[in-house]
Amino acid sequence: MRNTIIFVLFAVLTGIFGYFYSSPKVVQKIIVVRHAEAYKNLAKIPENAEADSLTTLGEKQAKALGKILENERIDLWISSTKKRAMQTRDIAFAQNNHGGEKVTSQAFLSMKKGGKSWQWRTQNWKEGKDPRPTEGESLSDATKRCLQKLSEYKTTKTIIIFSHGDICATLIGHAKQTTMYQRYEKHALPLAGYAKIHVLINGQWYTP
Question: Which domains does the chain show, CATH number per domain?
Answer without folding.
Answer: 26-206 (3.40.50.1240)
